[in-house]
Amino acid sequence: MKSDSRAAVRVGLIGFGTVGQAFARLLARETPDLQSRRGVALSLAAVANRSIDRKRDRGLGEGVRWTEDLASVATDPGIDLVVELLGGIEPANGLIRAALNTGKSVVTANKMLLARHGTELQALAREKGVGLGIEAAVAGGIPILRALRSSFTGDRVTAVSGILNGTCNFILTEMEKTGRPYDEVLAEAQRLGYAEADPASDVGGDDAAYKLALLARLAFGRDVAFDQITREGITRLLPCDFVYARRLLLTPRQLAVARLLESGHLLLSVRTHLVSETSLLAKVTGPFNAVEVRGESGGPFIFSGRGAGGGPTATAVLADVVEIARGGAPAAPPLGFGVLEPCVPATPEEFVSPFYLRFVVRDRSGIIADLARILADHGANIEAVFQAPYEDKSALPFVMTLEPVSGKALAGALVEIDSLTFHVVPPLALPMTE
Ligand SMILES: NC(=O)c1ccc[n+]([C@@H]2O[C@H](COP(=O)([O-])OP(=O)(O)OC[C@H]3O[C@@H](n4cnc5c(N)ncnc54)[C@H](OP(=O)(O)O)[C@@H]3O)[C@@H](O)[C@H]2O)c1
Question: Is the pTM value of this prediction over 0.85?
Answer without folding.
Answer: yes
